[in-house]
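Aggregate trends can hide what the representation actually does to any particular protein. In the encoding step, the backbone of a single protein was reduced to a row of integers, each denoting a local shape. The record that follows shows the chain in one-letter code together with its fold in token form.

***
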Amino acid sequence: MNLKMITLLTFTVLLSGCLYPNERMQENQATNDEQLAAVQQAVEEFSERNNGILPIHTRDQDTPLFIKYPVNFNSLKEENILGETPGNAYEQGGYYSYVIVDPREEPTVQVSDVRVTQTLSSINYEINIYRNNAGNPPYGESLGNGLFTINEDRVNLRDEPNVTSPYTGQDLDVVMTTQGEAVVDYRPDVYQLMESEDIDEYDGDLRYLLIEHYPIVPAFSPEMYLEDGQIVLKEGIVTE
């Protein structure tokens, strides 16, 4: 059993509390970690049967990396590898989209919170309305490295531009790229994780630190790096 698989199986408490709608939590809390493990096993078996091909839906090349390879449950069912789609999956009316991370080297099944996607879609809709009328996105304060706050006076948002963290439940700011694309600032979650795990140094994109410690991917996020003890956001959502 590889390290990533062991990490997934240790998050029973997280999965029972976070990966299900409240009304279904009691019904499914005993099997949440088992469902992730079952999908992981099914993906590996499908790959072995099909010469390394993964059971994924095809997405556009510009789809953000962490949601670029969603699991195709129909393919798993057609080969009788998986009996049913997990109850918390988006396909079943749940809040989570099952995705494959690192498909080339070590395909690992994790999930993306669909509620984050839906909130960002609403914000992007309002950004695009303003841009179509004004000719440019509703830039607010510059955060550096090609990122900006959203000027709330210029867009018709019903609520503050933020999302609920799929990791901690705290509010996370939604910021905007130079192109006017809404993205999530996961820095508070990373700071909290680094403090709890006593991490002082990290080489590379800190989004992968979240992936290493949680079975949830930081969808629609700019790159994050540790520089002089501070987490710095950098424009660009990697797509390959």
Observations:
- The helical segments are 3-9, 12-18, 22-28, 32-49, 73-78, 114-134, 187-196, 207-213.
- The longest strand covers residues 171-177.
